[in-house]
Amino acid sequence: MEQSTNILVVEDDNDINQLLCRMLTKSQYHPQPAYSGTEALLYLKQQDWDLVLLDLMLPGMAGEQVLTNIREKGSIPVMIISAKEEKQTKITSLRAGADDFITKPFDLDEVSARIDALLRRYKHTKETPSQLLTHKDIELHVEEKTVYVNDIHLTLTIREYKILLLLMTTPQKVFSKANVFESVWEEPFHGDDNTVNVHISNLRTKLGNANPEAEYIETIWGMGYRMKS
Amino acid sequence: MEQSTNILVVEDDNDINQLLCRMLTKSQYHPQPAYSGTEALLYLKQQDWDLVLLDLMLPGMAGEQVLTNIREKGSIPVMIISAKEEKQTKITSLRAGADDFITKPFDLDEVSARIDALLRRYKHTKETPSQLLTHKDIELHVEEKTVYVNDIHLTLTIREYKILLLLMTTPQKVFSKANVFESVWEEPFHGDDNTVNVHISNLRTKLGNANPEAEYIETIWGMGYRMKS
DNA sequence: CCCATATTTAAGATTTTCTTAAGGAACCTG
DNA sequence: CAGGTTCCTTAAGAAAATCTTAAATATGGG
User: What domains can be seen in chain B, in order of their start residue?
Assistant: First the structure.
């Protein structure tokens, strides 16, 4: 499954922005131009990005501020492209969270190679959630949110699906009821575990209906649940 | 738990090698100098490294070859430091797997900042291994809350598990009954130790059933319990 | 608004674990 | 050696944890 690489190009100089976007397109990436710091923020909110090319001198919001904002939110690679030749700016940016710093005028091939290097490392370490989880004869297709047991399609409710997904992401791990609640319901656990109990029971029933021979979810008394090996 | 950051510095020029090592030491890293490509390979085989600083013109084996070797083996960050100013060498290296390319003469502060940026990204994604406690032939997997003795899976109650976990975290230490009670029950000790006695007895029985030859828990009369060596 | 479905709450049943009591063994001291 | 203290083991009843099912409530779509 081929996923496109989306790169945000934040550069107020029209010609340079287009130059960079053309280079990126030629490398099979999907560039999105932005001409101000504030415009960049809107795009950053809108979707995930694989890399950001960031000028420092921008209208609306300075590049330094955008970098800070990006770093507060996550770990996307950021390459600074700037006319500011000062050594101190370079070092401040790198220490503030930038992954690379290129000064204008730049060599396009070098920029391209450095982008590739950055993406190589980012993509290598970026956790692509496994698209298919299996355990015994359970198949859980993450993208499609479908579950098969013994090649039989299960109709799970969203709660049931999320519980099974949680357990199957780390089949050896014991998830306490509080863990399960907080992960699936995304609220603080308030001490009453009966809702979790009921959903676990419902899930067990559905799994068992598909294959009565097997047991899939194991209770560790006093501790919680895990996938049964 | 603080882990040291080990950086291999591969540079045949003595002065430059020392300069880099001093800078790294000042940044609290642990540098290891190597003066040839072949020497670098020996160190790479010997242990894991967090980053490699690599010159290209080296005796014994060219830096390009060392880079190829590193990339075949794993994903350690590699920063090339080279006198070769040619644009083509820079791009070839970056595309061959280098993470960064600095030309000599370099600015030490910039090198330092780039090293920090590289390590920041590398350390951010490094996985922390799951915790395992062992004593004699007992294996206690903390995350999974499972216990094996002599490769036999033990079914422990939560009290038994917690007592064993407590004793195995510090196998030399004598834990008084009050210690055990307060740690496992998380209540103030009220003087009656019979509950602890019973659980210790039950735990001993389960351990002994798995391996009758060995003794695992030792009583120190008048003081408490510890793991038997 | 009505209906179907999902979720939560409630209640009773089942399973597991814990605590306490009692008898006996082991250890320590005078 | 005897007596007192500490510890160990076993069994039974109580308590806690968990499971299942049904009823009540919430949600979303037509």
Answer: 6-125 (3.40.50.2300), 132-227 (1.10.10.10)
